[in-house]
């Protein structure tokens, strides 16, 4: 169907005076004595295009007056009062009717209500803005790494290992329900891969393999976690950005993470000013100022041990008590970044017992060269570390965790054949989207959220 994008018609002055066809869905319809006005949207921009119908020349079909109807309109592009353009209709064709039980009749619905209809909520202004920001931010991430000699690696989604060791994996199986096997081992042996396989929680282990040849790599794909936590920050399927950098130590990777965040935010602000203004108006007052401040200031760096002292001194009653050795809960993370620093904070040098096996052990014997990046409003958006490059130390950490060494032979080999210091991080893409849009529930920054007890 030959037609022109509404974004182009509205923004490109070269179209003024031309007769052309646009397509879209009716967002408002208004009738007066002599004129009919339709606003239609085709998804190419947050803004609608006004269609002006002079009743002395033609009558709009009744079905075109219904919210949600799909139409094709041919007419002349003329200047609009707001400086953009509108269309003087010469013909209106209804492509798809939309009956009165179309649920999106009101101007504003709650996000909770919209979550009950993921297939239709995409047609609201909010999701128009969310999905475009998502797309532009994804492209910005690729641009950032591609412009700096990183190689984009596609790591497997089905794996035989558990990178984070938290046991929160989805098993991949072709074996249906049966009681035919005497134990788990024989059950998995009879399965597709001849052993237990699962969906990957992180591409890191294979990312390290690639970095040991390509130097600087990144992955950007889905990760899966069967975390039984129904929170506004967890989904079972999220998108994960994971650079892995050879010859980089913890301070180097921290610098890269901060630089990347600043670059992609700047890129987004240049490309999506209308969407960000929309989020500022409807979701987070002060969003633009927050993002500008992020660009202009250094992120803070705080040692875990000092973070514990700060939290102990805080005159706040936390639900989870604070002691050296405890994992930081969201309430702690948010206190540090929202109340104390009021900007992004890298917490570094966590106790080794609460972190993953692969992290570089610090000389103190108690902590690892790891960091989480915490941001106001969300908490942790990045998990990062220098990797243990020493074979014996890595082996020791794995044995202490009772890990099945045969599952990690390739990974251990990297420490035998030309091992080098290297570091990487994982950015939760949806968490980053929450931060830049001010949307406070992760279910509202992804097309189809998968959460515990819910899939459609
Ligand atoms: O901190 P995590 O578990 O780190 C890793 O997976 C490392 N292997 C990354 C690396 O070094 N290559 O996860 C990284 C980030 C978190 O900071 C968070 O932003 C996001 O992934 N994340 C989730 N996002 C949404 N829902 C979940 N269930 C998430 N789990 C982690
Ligand atoms: Mg983490």
Strand content: 15-25%
Taking pLDDT < 50 over at least 5 consecutive residues as the criterion, the unreliable ranges are none
Proportion in helices: 25-40%
On the 0 to 100 scale, the average pLDDT is 96
First-last Cα distance: 32 Å
The major β-sheet equals: 8 strands, mixed
The number of helical elements comes to 14
What is the general shape? elongated
Compressed to H and E, one letter per element, the order equals: HEEEEEHHHEEEHEHEEHHHEHHEEEHHEH
Kindly name the structural category: alpha+beta
Read across the widest sheet, the strand sequence of neighbours is: 6-10-11-16-15-14-13-12
Please provide the count of β strands. Answer: 16
Ligands present = 4-amino-1,4-dioxobutan-2-aminium adenosine-5'-monophosphate, magnesium ion
| Gyration radius, in Å | 26 Å
Descriptive notes:
With 456 residues, this protein is an alpha+beta fold. Helix content is 31%, strand content 24%. The chain contains 14 helices and 16 strands. The protein has helices spanning 6-11, 111-115, 118-121, 125-146, 184-189, 204-214, 250-271, 273-282, 287-296, 304-313, 330-341, 391-400, 409-413, 429-437, and strands spanning 19-31, 35-41, 49-54, 70-79, 85-96, 151-152, 158-159, 171-172, 197-199, 216-224, 237-246, 300-303, 345-351, 367-375, 379-386, 422-428. It has an eight-stranded mixed beta sheet. It has a five-stranded mixed β-barrel with strand order 1-2-3-5-4. A three-stranded antiparallel beta sheet has the order 7-9-8, with no helix packed on it. A hairpin with a 7-residue loop joins strand 2 (35-41) and strand 3 (49-54). Helix 4 (125-146) packs across helix 7 (250-271) and helix 4 crosses helix 8 (273-282). The radius of gyration is 26 Å and the shape is elongated. The two termini are 32 Å apart. 37% of the residues are buried. Bound molecules: 4-amino-1,4-dioxobutan-2-aminium adenosine-5'-monophosphate and magnesium ion (MG). Residues 372, 380, 383 line the site of magnesium ion (MG). The site of 4-amino-1,4-dioxobutan-2-aminium adenosine-5'-monophosphate has 23 residues, from strand 11, strand 15, strand 16 and helix 14.
């Amino acid at each position: 169907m030959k037609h022109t994008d509404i974004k182009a018609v509205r923004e490109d002055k070269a179209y003024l005076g031309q007769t052309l066809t646009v397509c879209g869905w009716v967002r408002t319809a208004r009738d007066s004595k002599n004129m009919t006005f339709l606003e239609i949207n085709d998804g190419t921009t947050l803004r609608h295009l006004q269609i002006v119908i002079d009743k002395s020349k033609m009558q709009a079909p009744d079905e075109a007056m219904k919210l949600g109807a799909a139409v094709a309109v041919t007419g002349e592009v003329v200047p609009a009062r707001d400086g953009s353009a509108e269309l003087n209709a010469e013909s209106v064709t209804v492509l798809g009717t939309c009956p009165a039980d179309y649920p999106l009749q009101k101007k504003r619905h709650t996000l909770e209500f919209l979550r009950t209809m993921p297939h239709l909520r995409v047609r609201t202004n909010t999701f128009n803005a969310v999905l475009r920001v998502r797309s532009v931010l994804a492209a910005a991430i690729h641009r950032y790494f591609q412009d700096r000699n990183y190689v984009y690696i596609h790591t497997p989604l089905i794996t035989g290992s558990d990178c984070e060791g938290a046991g929160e994996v989805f098993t991949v199986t072709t074996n249906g329900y049966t009681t035919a096997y005497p134990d788990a081992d024989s059950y998995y042996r009879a399965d597709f891969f001849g052993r237990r396989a699962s969906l990957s929680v992180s591409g890191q282990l294979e990312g390290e393999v690639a970095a040991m040849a390509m130097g600087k790599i990144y992955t950007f794909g889905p990760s899966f976690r069967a975390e039984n936590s129904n929170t506004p920050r967890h989904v079972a399927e999220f998108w994960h950005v994971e650079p892995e950098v050879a010859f980089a130590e913890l301070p180097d990777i921290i610098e890269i993470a901060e630089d990347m965040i600043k670059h992609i935010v700047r890129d987004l602000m240049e490309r999506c000013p209308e969407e960000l203004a929309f989020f500022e108006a409807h979701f987070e007052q002060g969003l633009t100022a927050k993002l500008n401040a992020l660009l202009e200031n250094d992120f803070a760096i705080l040692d875990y041990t000092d973070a514990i002292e700060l939290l102990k001194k805080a005159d706040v009653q936390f639900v989870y008590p604070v002691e050296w050795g405890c994992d930081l809960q969201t309430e702690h993370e948010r206190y540090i970044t929202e109340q104390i620093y009021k900007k992004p904070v890298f917490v570094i040098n966590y106790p080794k017992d609460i972190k993953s096996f692969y992290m570089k052990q610090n000389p103190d014997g108690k902590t690892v060269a790891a960091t989480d990046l915490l941001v106001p409003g969300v908490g942790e958006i990045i998990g990062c570390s220098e990797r243990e490059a020493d074979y014996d130390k890595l082996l020791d950490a794995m044995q202490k965790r009772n890990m099945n060494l045969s599952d990690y032979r390739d990974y251990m080999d990297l420490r035998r054949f030309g091992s080098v210091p290297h570091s990487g991080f994982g950015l939760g893409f949806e968490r980053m989207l929450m931060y830049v849009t001010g949307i406070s529930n992760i279910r509202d920054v992804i097309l189809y959220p998968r959460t515990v007890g819910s899939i459609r």
